[in-house]
Give the backbone structure.
Amino acid sequence: MPVLRARATFALAAALTLTGVVVLSGGLVTGSDRATAATSYPSWDDVMAARGQESATKTKVAELQALLTGLRSRAESAQAEAERLGTEFQKAQSKSDEAAETEATLRAEADEHAEVAAESAAQAGQFAAQLSRTGGSSMTASIISDGNGAEDLLYDLGAMSKLTEHAQKIETAAVADAAVARSLTAQADRAATALDALAADAESRMAAAQRASDAAQTQVQEQNDNEARVQAQLATLTSGRERTEAEFAKGEQIRIAAAAELARQQAAAAEAARRQAAAAAAAAAASGSSAGSGPAPSTGGGAGVGSGSGSGWVRPGGGGMSSSYGWRIHPITGVRTFHDGVDLASGCSTGIVAASAGTVDYVGWYGGYGNYVRIDHGNGLKTAYGHIVAGGFRVQPGQRVSAGTLIALVGSTGNSTGCHLHFETRPGGGTTDPVPFMAARGVSLR
């Protein structure tokens, strides 16, 4: 019996081959479906290979996970370095600001003493001119000769003595004020020299902080890009065998269903041919003719920020003013410190815009003011914007911006109790109160 069954199977295969059907391990498919079946779904060999790669896959997964850990670590280290250098820049800038204020104060005091000295010298000169016009010693003789009595003489002599004494005091005061003015000017000159050094140090630290900030941004971007890619690779590796087996099972179902449908179609075609042959034989017998039948009949088928006054200046953020410029008790440290700008109670992640046109000269960490952008408007004037949300920078160093250009998003980075915008105005090396500064340009911050 086995031999007969084998012969029958071989005969069936031969007959099916003649009609365009081939035998596969999963069933019967037509010749036209053979390439699709072979390429669209994995074979049993593919399944076995996927199972055999299980240990290698686990090793690769561990490598990729270690790569992700390294990427995150490098990004965190770069960010920490950027914050360290940004804090050093902020401290250096604060020293430069204090030196600028000291130099300006000394200059003002020197100018004041020089002005007083000039006035005193002018008065002393006027008295000297009067004495010169009266003839000096001849005035004394005139008083003696013209006196009407002893009392008049003594009065006149006393008056002249007081006049001379007053002139001497004025002259002495003028000399003293001039000396003080010279001393203060010398101190201001020394302060200016120190200011130059501090400003240069601040600029150097700003450049270092900017480089670190750029590197950190690059590292974070690289981490984000690679993490997405590596996560996709991890998903592919960890699900490779399961997916291969599932696709193989699906392919088997399709192959079996296709073979069954083809077998049904083939049986129907064979039955139609048998009936056609029987009908033709019957017709020939009835007519006594040996002529063959004609061709078989065919079968058918079918188938609100940025407000301004037209002055070229606009409000940099929304919300009312929550903290003013000047000395205050810091809300976090509790220490009396100088607040270099004003705070606007802007909402989290709302827009921060450039107060006026200029060139961005710093984008990075700035000590207690967190993520920080500074814009140079020319002629020594700059504005700055602090506490920007992490990932909220919208400009780069060297970029030109217009008044109202979106530069960042509001956050609470640095020493901050909640989302708000810290806004500074910096004319000529130091800071000034932004409220009157902006009011003079038609913009209200209150």
Remarks:
- The longest strand covers residues 381-393.
- The radius of gyration is 49 Å.
- The chain has a mean pLDDT of 77.
